[in-house]
Every structure is written in structure tokens, then in C-alpha cells.
Amino acid sequence: MSHDTPSGKESPKADATAGSASDETPTEKAGSNRPTGADQMISPFAFTFVEGLKEAGVSIVAALPESLLASVYLACSRDNEIRYIPVTNEAELPGIVTGAYLSGKKAVMIMENSGLRQALEPIVRSAYCHHLPMVLVMSYRGDLGEQNWWGHNHSQAMEPILDAVRIPWRSVRKIEDIKSSIKKAIDHANSSQWPVALVMSGECVEIPNYGKN
Fold first, then answer.
1. Class assignment of domain 44-200?
2. Which residues touch 7 (CB under 8 Å, ≥6 apart)?
3. Partner residues linked to 197 by β-bridges
């Protein structure tokens, strides 16, 4: 509905208001779960990630969605060759992926690195008591250049925890390295019968140049 001035012309204020929505630059918000909706765009790195999963034989993805890998969750949920299982607590993820392994399927778990602390007990129990392999994919929240005060402690805790429980991990920062990293992580986990972690940053997350050297 247009807003007319007494002279019959449309108000300049109305024009400015109408155009502001498209010109507004989106900003990240804590706890956001972008992108959503059937028409939402998927970032290029996410297409490569899903292709890498399928080429490595992964058919199940269990995840607790967050913002840095938002396109990955959306792409997995839309792909007919992948069974996407969202959870409400990271501690649920290890049981899903190890159960898939015991049934002869390949699965990965995806979460923010903050979720490592929540998932640690079932990860360690599965590894140390039963030598069950699993691949953890995490966003590198708190990587160098992090602008959210609440994000720094996630990286500060992640590296010491992974090292303490002897989980090998690699940071994936370039799109061209995604497919090979997924394949290597799955092969390494299966041959070692042990967890392996991939930590995504740089070109491989939603925020341009995040953690980029």
C-alpha cells in the first residue's frame, strides 16, 4: 500500500523504507541457524562437501546445526542420497555414527566445536572401551580473527581436548581440500578404529575469509 502526500505523489520516506530490506547487510547472530527455507541459497563449499561425502560412501549425516556450517546442514537435508538426522544434544551424535558403522554404513557427525565438550564422554567411551571409529566434522568457532566474544573459548578448549584424548585432527580451510580430507578422515578412522576430527574454517564456512591466513 502506497503512502501518498497531499499532492498525490508517493512519499520519499516510503521509498526509502521499501528499499531498506534488500540493501541491508546480513549479520551473524549468536544461536542463528542460517540458512533456512526452500529458496535459501547454498554456499559453494557446501556443495563440494556433500559431493565429498557421497564419493567417500557416506550415507548418514547426524548433526546439531549452527551458523558457520549452515549450508552444509541444508544441503545434506535436501540430498536424497543422504539420510540427515538432526539432534538436540551433541551427546547423541556418537551413538548414531557408531551404530551406523556397526550396521555396515558410513556416517559422519557435524557440529560446532563447542559441542565437543558435550559429546566427549560418549566419544571417549566408544573409542577407549570399544575402539569404534567415527569422523567428527566441526566448525572452527574461535579461529584467528573471531569477532564474537563468546566464540573464543570454544577454540581455546577444542585443541587441548582433542590432544588430551589422542584424537587426530586437521583443519580444512580451502574448498579444494574438502573432498580429499573427508576421504582421508574416513579411511584413517576405519583403519585405526579410532575417532578422527576435521575442523572447518577459511573458505569452508559461511562467513567470507573467516579464519583465513
1. alpha beta
2. none
3. 136, 169
